[in-house]
Amino acid sequence: MRRPVPIILTAVLLGFLAGGELLLAVSMVFAGVVFLTKSLQTPPPTPFAPSFLPIMMFLFSLLFAAFAGWSIVTLVGLVRLRSWARYSVLVIAGLLAVFGGISAVTSFVMPFLMPVPPAVQNQPAADPAMMRVIFFVIGAVYAFFAAIGIALLVYYNLARMRALFLQNAPVALGAPNTVTGRPRPTAIAVISWIYLVSAPFFLIYTVLPFPAFFLGFIFYGAAAHCLYLFFAVLAFAIGYGLYRLREPARLAVFALFVLFPIQVVVLLTPWGARQFRLATDIVNAAMYRGQQAPPNVFASPGLIVFFMLVACALYVPLLWLLHRHREAFTPARPAPPMPATPAPLAG
User: Fold this and answer.
1) Full-model pTM
2) Where are the domains of the chain?
């Protein structure tokens, strides 16, 4: 069967993504080994002490290798027109649209919110006009990837594309693999996999000596690691629950959304802003090991509030989809009984 041109282009895009992810994974492993064997010193004020760098590099190399494997498997399934590959492309497209959109908005807004950095060590300060150009170019790249993600979401949800991939789908003779007995909507499948993919990122912080800031409170040491582990398990549980159409998982997403405005209100209070600056100072102390940390414009409570408001705006379509498909999370009605077969007449 001849493949449509957009499917071929999607396969090429997945190949480029896999190649870039593998290159990043190999580069991080190589750099981590060099730091371990050569005992290199990082020039001040570079974030992360030398002992932190190999840990960070090895952890992120595993993540990039996993993403590369995911892209390769999806590419093979897409070329073979497998039904599951369409869902995988939709998940990847959703990640591109969400994270690309957030990064693009952040890059476009940053030049107007960040203060002009002062000169350091007799070096002239950065030119604000040049910084705006750099942020605009970076934002345009992120916007391009976000546009690709949106285009893939639209294209692979067309009726003719669903029909094309259903031709190669296995015939399901039994009930759907859900707790409600209803078929799983495509939007719910994509959202569930986004949660499943995001869970490993929380695990990275469970091995780093950083505090956790949550609703104005600072957690240290084992308490911080347990909090990061809790959110990793929660993200995985929500993703798996949504995939199986469990109603508690759907309600948990709405409950987590309530935390956004609460966190915003806390950061707007003097106590919350003071607590956040304290948590930032603790992170800088762990990262720079006594060296003077450069000003971090991303650590401003005002910018954090802005980022959270952007996240809230992007969260609304997700909540709308969960509300729209709420019927899928209710048990399906039992099939009506078959009519009784009349007994054959005697004679």
Assistant:
1) 0.67
2) 183-330
